[in-house]
Amino acid sequence: MSERAGDRALVPARHETGDVTFRLAAGLLALAGVLLVLLIGLAWLMFPREVRDQRFAQPFPEWPAPRLQRDPAADMARFHETELQWLNSAGWRDQAAKTVHIPIDQAMRAVAADGIPGWPAGDTTVSQGDRR
């Protein structure tokens, strides 16, 4: 098979001659090392006593581990039970101030019968279309 495309001959493959040489790469690496040493020396001159961090007392204090719920469902059931007990019982809320709490159903019946002071009264009459 011929290496001709029409009347022109194909140019043979060549490599890039302007690549980075080993000498340039080694020089840049050496320059970076010298700059690193200079910066470390400059930091040591600027902060001579900060080489070791001695601000914290040794040994470090140990904090207690977080207390996690062992059984969240049981905790929620216990909370629900105490709330229901509070809502369905009567007793002193603050004995010094002489305030008591009453069961929720009794409180709702009292509000339904007497209304809430300062609350606008609604229309209590029932129209013919609302009766069932």
Rg calculated over all Cα atoms? 44 Å
Residue windows where pLDDT falls under 50 for at least 5 positions: none
How is the largest sheet built, in terms of strand order?
1-2
Series of H and E elements: EEHHEEH
List how many beta strands DSSP finds. Answer: 4
Strand content: 5-15%
Shape assignment: elongated
Mean residue pLDDT: 83
Based on secondary structure, the structural category is: mainly alpha
Approximate helicity band: 25-40%
Termini distance? 101 Å
Count the DSSP helices: 3
Biggest beta sheet attributes: 2 strands, antiparallel
Fill in the keyword field for this structure.
single chain; 132 residues; mainly alpha; two-stranded antiparallel sheet; 3 helices; 4 strands; 8% strand
Describe it.
Among the domains are: 21-51; 72-118, no CATH class. 39% of the residues lie in helices and 8% in strands. The relative contact order is 0.04. The chain has 3 helices and 4 strands; from the N terminus they run ββααββα. The protein has 132 residues and is mostly helical. Strand 1 (4-5) and strand 2 form a beta hairpin.
Describe the secondary-structure layout.
Elements: E1 4-5, E2 8-9, H1 22-46, H2 72-87, E3 91-94, E4 99-101, H3 104-114
Antiparallel strand pairs: 1-2, 3-4
Compact summary:
The protein has 132 residues and is mainly alpha-helical.
